[in-house]
Write a structure and sequence with these properties.
Layout: H1 6-12, H2 16-23, H3 31-36, E1 38-40, E2 43-45, H4 47-53, H5 57-67, E3 71-72, E4 77-78, H6 81-87, H7 91-98, H8 101-108, E5 111-113, E6 124-126, H9 129-132, H10 142-147, H11 152-155, H12 158-202, H13 209-227
Antiparallel strand pairs: 1-2, 3-4, 5-6
Helix pairs in contact: 1-2, 2-5, 4-5, 12-13
């Protein structure tokens, strides 16, 4: 059907209870489609974004919770996280601007905890791929969007903290170490060429003038051709 569906009526009423009843009518494999796409003439609108834009946050929260609930039948498991981010790759920014309260709902839905306890611990899975990369494989601006809220509790959420630690340990630490190693080497070369070797030449201490001059040239080449291109 087009336009007015039971899902849209629940959103207009801003009723989480009606929303859950409406989505319960959908087969498991179509639940995400019911709350992410509704045909209106030749166009398709998202009930989730409609709820956020209209301020129906109770219904929007119910949609996010339903999408991020893991379900199963005899054939497969169903988890709407990929459908959500495929439909709305900018969901982090949209929530930061229009419904920051729902950021917690979304983050909580990206955590799975086992019901069984082994040795006083429970297995936990963090679905943080969409915080780190986008569907096209490029770096996601999600962490930047979340940090723009300037909320220390938000960025301390287990999913965000795990994603940041992964980015740091797997990617950023190597770039950080390389850049600072180059800076240190260049600083040493600059100090030697400007304050050590050059001073000895000016003061007339020339036990090996050719060797000293070559050392100065090498150090300055390191500074000009290694240090400067990285800055």
């Amino acid at each position: 059907s087009e336009g007015s569906t039971i899902v849209m009526r629940a959103i207009n009423a801003n009723s989480a209870k009606q929303l859950r009843k409406a989505v319960a009518c959908a087969p498991r494999k179509e639940r995400s489609h019911w709350v992410l796409s509704v045909a209106v003439g030749a166009e398709s609108i998202s009930p989730l974004m409609w709820a956020i834009d209209q301020g129906s946050l109770e219904a929007a929260e119910a949609i996010i919770q339903d999408l991020l609930t893991i379900r199963a039948d005899r054939d497969r498991y169903y988890y709407g996280v990929d459908a959500l981010f495929a439909r709305h790759p900018d969901i982090w920014r949209r929530l930061c601007i229009g419904a920051p309260k729902l950021l917690w709902t979304l983050l909580d839905g990206l955590v799975w905890r086992s019901r069984t306890v082994e040795g006083g611990k429970r297995r936990t899975a963090y679905f943080c791929r969409h915080i780190i990369v986008r569907a096209d494989g490029n770096y996601s601006p999600a962490i930047k969007d979340l940090c723009s809220r300037q909320d220390p509790k938000l960025v301390s959420h287990a999913v965000v903290a795990h994603a940041i630690n992964l980015v740091w340990s797997k990617v950023a630490v190597h770039t950080f170490t390389l850049r600072h190693a180059i800076w240190i080497v260049s600083w040493v070369a600059y100090t030697l060429s400007q304050a050590v070797f050059d001073t000895e030449l000016v003061d007339g201490f020339e036990s090996e003038p050719a060797t000293m001059r070559i050392a100065v040239v090498v150090c300055r080449c390191i500074v000009y051709f290694v240090f400067f291109p990285f800055h």
